[in-house]
Design a protein that fits this description.
6-stranded mixed beta sheet, 3-stranded antiparallel beta sheet, about 260 residues, globular
Length: about 260
């Protein structure tokens, strides 16, 4: 049985009617409020499944809808239409500060996230040394996270997300911040979770990581799935679509499935 199912899911946003080139006046704001807003579809009619224990990679250009898809999965926002089915506990690292209370220390945020996952204080305490050790932030674990650098946020955020035994792990550009050593630790941890049968969705511009970690991949473009298949096929199509806007010679077109 699939852990995640998307059935005709769409997400629509209202784009404000703002004149470009100057700061909107009070009259402009009033007119904006009275005038019907233009529609922007971040996602349109998305259909796919992620089987239990499968690692799915999601790639696409900036603005393709990748982060919107993950925000729908993590209940940060709701779909405008369609149905999303999630079976199992879900842990998400969508943004660096996701799930953190800025006034609490790192240690307190670990316990907070554990409670959200339905774990007891004792269970979190047992995992705490591994979380702190993996994050590498040392004594800063007892400092309010509002004082953390972006790298420290990422280290602790990933450590929490990966050590609370989620059934489903959502990761958005988790390898984009941090030094090389920590990136390798993340890759190794993701591989271990994958081998342990966890369901993983990874959004990344790192095509090598997608090919290394994922069983299947999808390519998003303008809010729609335009290609689905093996990671090597989908990354080849992504590179091909990128070269279409340049003068570089195009590689042979991959045999990549496209939704009807």
């Amino acid at each position: 049985m699939a852990d995640i199912e998307f059935h005709h899911v769409s997400k629509r946003y209202a784009a404000p009617n703002v004149r470009v080139g100057r700061r909107p006046s009070l009259r402009d704001r009033w007119r904006n409020w009275r005038t019907p807003k233009a529609e922007f579809w971040a996602l349109r009619d998305i259909n796919f499944k992620v089987e239990h224990g499968e690692a799915l990679g999601i790639i696409g250009h900036n603005g393709a809808g990748k982060s919107t898809l993950l925000k729908l999965l993590s209940h940060i926002t709701a779909p405008s239409s369609g149905e999303i089915i999630i079976r199992g506990n879900l842990s998400a690292l969508i943004e660096i500060s996701t799930g953190f209370h800025p006034e609490l220390t790192g240690r307190e945020n670990v316990y907070l996230n554990g409670v959200i996952f339905g774990m007891s204080r004792r269970e979190v305490a047992e995992k705490l040394p591994d979380i702190i050790g993996f994050s590498g932030i040392g004594d800063f674990i007892d400092v309010p996270v509002k004082r953390y650098s972006s790298g420290m946020y990422l280290r602790l955020g990933f450590a929490i997300a990966a050590h609370l035994d989620p059934d489903i792990l959502l990761l958005d550009e988790v390898l984009a911040v941090g030094d090389v050593a920590f990136q390798w630790k993340c890759l190794d941890r993701i591989e271990r979770l994958r081998k342990a049968g966890r369901t993983i969705i990874l959004v990344s511009h790192d095509l090598a990581a997608i090919e290394r970690l994922c069983d299947r991949a999808i390519l998003l473009s303008r809010g729609q799935i335009v290609c689905e298949g093996t990671p090597s096929m989908v990354t080849a199509e992504y590179q091909r679509s990128t070269l279409l806007v340049s003068d570089s010679p195009l590689p042979p077109e991959p045999k990549c499935a496209r939704p009807d």
